[in-house]
Amino acid sequence: MDKLQVVGGKRLEGEIVISGAKNAALPILCAGLLTSGDLELSNVPRLHDVKTILKLLAQTGLAVSQDDERVTLNGSAITTLEAPYELVKTMRASILVLGPLLARFGEAKVSLPGGCAIGSRPVDQHIKGLRALGAEITIEGGYIYAKCKKLKGARIRTDMITVTGTENLLMAATLAEGETVLENAAREPEVTDLANLLVAMGAKIEGIGTDRLVIQGVAELHGARHAVISDRIEAATFLCAVAATGGDILLKNTRTDYFDVALDKLREIGLVMTMGPASIRAQMGGRPKPVSFRTTEYPGFPTDMQAQFMAVNTIASGASRITETIFENRFMHVQEMNRLGASIQTEGNTAHVKGVDRLVGAPVMATDLRASASLVIAAMAAQGTTIIDRIYHLDRGYDRMEVKLSAVGANIVRIK
């Protein structure tokens, strides 16, 4: 099992190219099931989760051709309408094949998903929505069985805001008969990116970017070309890294219009940023200032950045309070940061962080994807050497993080 060895105390200087967004690429790849035409995708990140979803799609009969960050899909010869447990158990996003398979072929068998152990993240909203569209759904032996000769448009209001739920129902509705209205829909940029692809494939969708999506079903979708948006979470993670270590980095292939809240908090920390058309220059000279925040659905503070900001707060010049409202188990990195000398106490869904003068390297263990990134940041800010175990979590969502950080001055190597 791979580990990362990090020797802290190095300032970051140089350029980093931001990869395509994991949370946009996964549903977009699943959209290849909706058409018999070619889907030509670019800026697809090289991640373990992408490999897993492509393997899952290929076993259905979807033709997959990959050249670095370009992927071409063709769904003209799909024969298997099943997502088996062996592939689904490691990644929750696998549930996103359910809507497309059901909508185009009238049935699907999908294992209940797994993924990071940061909360229950139930799929009941997916099932509720598909039933509203006319599907007959049963759950047996850990599998979701769904059937419907032809989905019918409906008005669907989810009980909570769910990103993958919105994406699944959106894809299903594109091929349903009549009009579907999705209310309380997620507004994340990654949902918008999927919707824009579906429109390029011939779907009729109104309200893109809002919490009310209106879809007029069409008989079929066709192929399209699409570039996956850049990863706002990866960009913000690297900005947290320079805020914690000091330095001067230039992020390329990024946008600033879809993570304003995180950027505002970084300014509060003391990070000086200069925005370009597709770049951010970030400079940090002194000790970070503490920032308090509360995670909420987009456009609020993203839960996927909570751990990384906590890492910066551990060495800030004061105390901060962090409240997690999205996932109930997303403070598992706290005890690992405390092993590095951080002063963090949790009370329910709130973490109280008292900034310390220094962190000291120690062996730590990654517990989930974003926790992995937060430990890398803390390790780079610490004195001495830190060994981070279980970094397979990191590889699920970051494209060669240690390579990118090494190129800008970090002392970080992968140990096989």
What does this molecule look like?
The protein is an alpha/beta fold. The chain is built from 14 helices and 24 strands. A 4-stranded mixed sheet has the order 22-23-1-24. Helix 4 (98-105) packs parallel to helix 6 (163-174) and helix 8 (232-245) runs parallel beside helix 10. The longest helix has 14 residues, at 232-245. The protein is elongated, with a radius of gyration of 21 Å. It starts with a strand and ends with a strand. The model is unreliable at 115-120 (pLDDT under 50).
Instruction: Classify the beta-strand content into a percent band.
Output: 25-35%
End-to-end C-alpha gap: 7 Å
Q: Order of strands in the sheet with the most strands? A: 22-23-1-24
Low-pLDDT ranges = 115-120
**Helix amount:** 25-40%
Rounded average pLDDT:
95
How many H/I helical runs? 14
> Shape, please?
elongated
Q: How many beta strands in the DSSP annotation?
A: 24
Quaternary structure type:
single chain
The biggest beta sheet is recorded as: 4 strands, mixed
- Helix-strand category: alpha/beta
From the alpha carbons, calculate the radius of gyration and give it in angstroms: 21 Å
